[in-house]
Amino acid sequence: MKYIRSAISIRNSLVTIVLPACLLFFASSVAGQTRVMKQLEEKRKSALEEIEWTSQLLKETHSSTQSSLNRLNLLAEQMAARRQIISLLNQEITLMDKEIADMNTELNELGEDLEVIRMKYAKSLQSIYVRRSIQYKWYFVLSAETFTQSIRRMRYLREYSEWQKHQVTLIVKKQTEINLKQTEIEQARTEKLSLLDIREKESGRLQTEEAEQKAEISQLAQKQKDLQAELNRKKKEAEAIDRQIENLITSEISRTLATGTPAGTTGAGRSGNKEAAPENAYLDTKEERQLSSNFASNRGRLPYPLTGKYRIVSPFGELKHPELKYVRTYNSGIDIQTATGTEAQAVFNGIVTAVFTVEEGYNHCVIIRHGRYLTVYGNLRAVYVKQGDKVSTRQKLGKIATDLHNATILHFEIRKEKEKLNPRLWLIK
């Protein structure tokens, strides 16, 4: 009997140690899976918000030859976001399948545990059925050979009775756990069906967008002459602003070489030695060198040059259009479409070195010098700053113009003297 009680005690101790450890491991695994699901859901919501914003821009921008390429780029952005949503949904559904499989495994284990407990309890009931009378219990106690043995038998009967009660408690507890797990599985299955339904709808929307893109491309192919004329007009606009900027830089170089005065400043420079200033030299003061260094160290962290939401509709550099193979575009910076009434803002501390109007387009244009670096803000219909003003990061520069086709687009450039840089590499990701 002593050995039996020891065995029971050891088994209970093992259950006390191992079961919580298993539960802890399972809980940790479920928590990690839930966290990943939450992250995927957040990404999906973010992508949906991006799609809603792009859809708004597409609705606001009237279809025309002038805005057609921008509309195609907006559609491409929207379709990319839609594909991302479908990919995220696939990941969520895969995780949901794994979660349901894990819960089914746990449910089976709970069922097996319940069956073992029930069998043990049933055996104990069969055992005491024959010896259920009070006389038998007293006989069992009094038939002991010694008084000590009688005490042990009484303790055994008491412990056995308590064990039976505990088994009943375990059965109720296990059954409750099984019911809860079954409810969780049903909820997970319902959620999975919801995700499948969302995925089907998103796939349908993607097909609609692909058809819309094909229709836009077909219309443009029929208006190839008009499109080419529009591209030539934009090229002239870009060349005009390039000339303005290069003339400005050349003028500043000449001024520096002639007077020794740092660009963007007034009065005599710290040295009148003309030969001391090399070509394209601007950094004649410690302050300008520091500003240039600070600007360079913020590569990839500069804020976008406008307030509110936006979409880049024309990237930097020379590109062949992915859908219209005969179309080549060149951009000295990037074109950013936004909502009507949006304001342009400075991306870094600096000095306004020029405010001018480009006859061929872009309306008003503002150039800010940051030591050796320049930032250009084109297509403003109202300007809040003037030449010589010191500006700070995120300071408002003016209101972005909205064209006749209801498109509000800011042209933005970054240069290191005359060298054109890709703004996407400098702006915050």
Features:
60% helix; disordered N terminus; 10-stranded antiparallel β-sheet; elongated; alpha+beta; 429 residues; single chain; two-stranded antiparallel sheet
What does the model show?
By secondary structure, this protein is an alpha+beta fold. 60% of the residues lie in helices and 15% in strands. The protein is built from 6 helices and 12 strands. Strands 1, 4, 5, 6, 7, 8, 9, 10, 11 and 12 form a 10-stranded antiparallel β-sheet that branches. The protein has a two-stranded antiparallel ribbon with strand order 2-3. Helix 2 (65-130) runs antiparallel to helix 4 (147-222) and helix 3 packs across helix 4. It is elongated and about 120 Å long. Mean pLDDT is 75; it is low at 1-26 and 262-281.
